[in-house]
Structure formats: C-alpha cells, structure tokens
Amino acid sequence: MESQKSIAAVATLFGRGLFTGAPARVRFHPAPMNQGVVFVREDLGGAEIPALVTHVVNRPRRTALSSGDATIETCEHVLSAVAALGIDNLLVEVDGPELPAMDGSARPFVDALLDAGIADCGGEKRPFVVTRPTVVRDGDALVAALPSERPMMQIVYELDYGDHQPLGRQLKVFDLVNGAYIDEIAPARTFVLEAEAQALRLQGLGTHLTPGDLLVIGNDGPLGDNALRFEDEPVRHKIVDLIGDLALLGAPIHGKIVACKSGHRLNHRLARELLTQLEGRKRQDLALRENSLDVRRLLKIIPHRYPMMLIDRVVEIEGNERAVGIKNVTINEPFFQGHYPGVPIMPGVLIVEAMAQLGGVLVGQNLQHTGKLAVLLSLDRVKLRKPVTPGDQLILEARSIRVRTRIAHVRCKAYVAEEVAAEAEIKFMLVDDEQE
Q1: Given 77, 237, 254, 264, which residue is catalytic?
Q2: Which of 121, 229, 240, 420 has a CA that sits 20 to 30 A from residue 180's CA?
Q3: Which of the residues 29, 55, 304, 339 is marked catalytic?
Q4: Catalytic site includes residue 208
Q5: Mind giving me the DSSP string for 63-99?
C-alpha cells in the first residue's frame, strides 16, 4: 500500500494570468489526508473550490472551476504538476481569478512543489484502475481510457492539425513513472498557431502577451526569438493538459490513455465518464460493508412491513445529508408473479417507493423520538432509466435538499452497478405519529 502525499512546507509563486493578464500570487499549503486538492480564493474571503470535474465550467482553451460565486481559471498546469508528482492532498491559495501562467509550462509549479518537499500525510492512496475500455469522441477527435497491466498512467497522444497547417503530425508515447515527467513533459509550453493568436487578440484575449511570453507558431516555426524546447514540444504540452484535466477525477489513474486531437472539453468528458465508474465502485464497496442499520432498526424508523418493506439494509448515513441503502431483487418477490409472467421486471413505481423509503429513513432517523412520521407528499422529476430484473442489486442513495418543521425534501437515485436505474425528487409531510 502506498500512502497519500502532500507537501512538507509552503511554496509561493508570482506571475500574471495567461488570459486575464491580472497579477496573481499562488501559495501551496500542506493538507491532511483525504482532503484532495482544493483551490482557495484568498481575495474572496477564502472561498473554496474543490479540484473535481463536477466543478468544471465551460471555457475555451483552458480549464476553469467554479463553486458558488467563486471561479478559478487556467488551473490545468498546476493540476498536471500536482498529479504527476503523486500529490493527493493540497491547498492552493490564489489571490485572484486566474492562476499565474509563468512561462506557459508546468515546470515552475513542479520546481516549487519539489522545493517544498513531498511528504506522506497518512491514509492509503486509492488509484482508479481502468477495467474496461471507455471512449469519448467529438468528430475525428477522441480520448479513451483502456485497461493496462502496468500500475501507472500510460499515455499515447497524437496531435494532427491537418496537412495545410504549420504543425505536422506529432505522436508521443509516455509513461508517467520514475520522475520522467519533470524533464520530458513539464517544460513543454502552451502554444498557439499564428492565426489562432490573431483571432484571440480580436476577441480581446491575450493582448498583454508577446511572442516572447507565449509560444506562437507561424509557417516557419516559432515567432520572435522563441525556440522550441523539444522538436515535438506541442504534443508534449498536450500531455501536460491531459494529465491536469484527468486529475479532476480526484484519484490517480492506472491505465492506458489514448488521445487524438483531444482538447480540454473532451478530456473533461472522459473524466466525467470515469467518475461515474468510480462512484459506482464506491457504492458497490459500501454494499459489502457490515450493516449500519439492519432490518430491526429500520422497522423502528419507518412504518412499512411485508410485502411493502423495500429496503434490506442501510449501509451508510452521513448525518442529515446522505444515506445509502440496498435492495436485493430476487425472483421470489411477489410482484414478479404478475409483472410480467415470462419477462420479470420490477415495477418502476416500486423502485420509486424504495427510494422514498430510504428518503424516509434519512429524514426519520431524527424523528424517531419526536412523535413525527415522514409521509410521502409529492414526486418531481421522476425518471425510470433502466429495467431492474431478478438478480440485480439496487443501490439506493438519498440526499437531503431541505428539511423544515413540516416539510422535508430529498433527491434520490437508484443504481444497478454504475448505471442509474431511476431518480426522483421527493417531498414528505412530517405528521404526528398516532401510534405514539
């Protein structure tokens, strides 16, 4: 088992944002195990933005994250350096809307983090091991995650702008192992074609930049006094971006990543697909835990009895915010006798009922000794997405939206493995329990 990593001391860098040109200071702080990477907008009173793909907002040519009213722009190079160095937990404090571009590469961030020192912070590192091919496409561009026997991220990237562009086809194969990233990938800089740079200037972007600040490639190579750091520097920088974007999964990836003409938006789509798989695995792991609430305790919280008791156990409860439950679907269920003979499918209304019962458990755990009972009031945004058949295990999840004196509102989903079988928003009326 490999332990989670952070840094040993604080590191600070100063620079200007690539797109905004705004002066920016970034401070890297050690963080405890299981926190992950979190950006902090110092200028907005310490607003936190987790470095997760669920917080990505749409921006051209860069990766931006948002939480509430706080946004952080152009964070892919920092995330790439952090992921490549195996850092799991880090607080990244910024005093403006955009991270400093430095020289357009990830190397200044790598050097600062190495100077701060990499340190164990406890807890077991939990990589995401790719077990099945996952491919996302957009026209002739694609990025895929494939299984690999080697415990690392392997990358194959093909850059191809076409036959009539200054850049020819470039192909790079790279294994993220043994520190090779530091010298082979991290120094590769952000680049644009001359025509792209002119178009960006017309949009009012990058007007503060000169060819000395950015790698601008014309028909005869880099403009100005710039020179390529590597013959294939552009494709190497694409790998910098790819590693940074996939770090938004929140876990190291062990597998082969194959990309062709992929950019930030497509990278984010792959990260979202992998996140769906990761969350599915977490739910399945929960299902194997010892009972958190067994049937006897459940019967004290909700009034349902056979044949309408549709939860076998609750495996996790996070305060008043979230609950995860299990419903094992067997051919012995009484409803399969008539729904349907020869083609047994669990009625969608009963899947919704199972979600509502878990929502009742989430709300009812605090009502158990108050003389109140959660009674179904309304259903909204109900969607049945996948048939549920004998042998399936429904993993139910309920999240609290709002709880008041008389009304409770929860959002529920039912999964079979990684696929959503049903979802709904459910409201309960909290009434006096006449049995008390």
Answers
A1: 264
A2: 121
A3: 339
A4: no
A5: -EEEETTEEEB--HHHHHHHHHTT---EEEEESSSB-
